[in-house]
Amino acid sequence: MLSRGTCVKIVVVSLLAVTAQHVARFMVHVGMFSHFFKHYPGPCKKVENIQPGSEDFYTLPDGLTFISSGFREQCMGPSIDEHFRQHKIKGRIYLFDFKKVNEGVKELKIASTEKFNADTFHPHGISVWEDKKAGHHVVFVVNHPHEQPVADRIEKFIFDPDKLELNHHSYYSGEALKVVSDVVAVSGSSFYVSNMFSEHSWGRMVVEVLGLLPWASLVFCEHSLCQEVAIGLMGACGLATSVVGDQQYIYVAAALGREIRVYRRNPDNSLRLQQIFPLHTFPDNIQVDHKTGDLYAGCHPIGHKILVHLDSPMGNPSPSQVLQLKVQDGNITSVQELFYDHGELISASTSATVYNRKLLIGSIFHNLVTCDVDVPL
Questions:
Q1: Burial of 224 (0-12, 13-18, 19+ CB in 10 A)
Q2: What is the pLDDT of residue 16?
Q3: What is the pTM of this model?
Q4: Which DSSP string corresponds to 117-161?
Q5: 226, HSE (Cβ side, Cα atoms, 13 Å)
Q6: What gap in Å lies between CA 273 and CA 233, rounded to an integer?
Q7: Long-range contacts (CB closer than 8 Å, 24 or more residues apart) made by 15-23
Q8: Low pLDDT (below 70) residues in the chain
Q9: Residue 199's pLDDT is what?
Q10: Nearest-angstrom CA–CA distance, 196 and 305
Q11: Hey, how many other C-beta atoms are within 10 angstroms of the C-beta on 335?
């Protein structure tokens, strides 16, 4: 029989071995030993007259694109405060027209109401629904308002194209909405959202990241009711549906898992996992090509650099990467890298899409970029 002292030594050594194994796995996972080579699909340039940050966007079939800017989580530190003060950043929604690329962006007017404070608006994910019956576009936006108590919301706006305004209609909140990253509309009053983390706690988020814990989830909301429909994801970020009019599939960028998950929608709006497609990079947001159904993902290829960038963006660039994912019958069949930059032209890419051979790339705190696409798609 082993002595008590020997048993303690075995336990300690075992714990140290498990810890060392996890540390080594985490170092590989966040790209401590990774290297990429810069390449563009054609000439690229920065889009002018937009504040730093273009976290997410949604492109309509006619090329009109809504862009969210001013993303800031409540738990972010003083260096982010300084970044916002220095660049006079506030929550804004911009409009970009792929048919008028040289005109840049236009800021949409957003007024405060009794239910919405434009001064505490910090938009994140965005989705647009064309309500053909009502004859207008409904815009859903994830909001991290800097108010107490801390609670993420989904804001619903009605777009007025003549006045270039977003008129606030209502908002959604509740216990099912944790640390929300993205939203994707499936009607004018229903949508799916992704909870990237399980709780609004800096310590809890750190544990989930360092532990690579699958505590993220997906939620379906209809009218004022929200319910969990998928669990077991690692850092659920961007959402997208298969081509509008179809919407049989929900695509989820599981950032910490470095994968795209494909779910099939059931008639009751619950989800059934159909495919897990590994990417070996950290995908952020997903956009769908309305013509082909293919996906475009803005990614963070070197994980440890995006972690530092999120804490202190000034002086800590993070590489940017764009992937095109071919889709057939809802499933991802292949992937190609369209763009890679070390962080000089654009740092920490979040969203990307191609329209009429033009590539648009957004970022968390940095530039908005367009590129010609001179390579086969």
A1: exposed
A2: 57
A3: 0.92
A4: -GGG--EEEEEEEEETTTTEEEEEEEE----SS---EEEEEEEET
A5: 21
A6: 11
A7: none
A8: 1-34, 148, 244-245
A9: 83
A10: 19
A11: 18
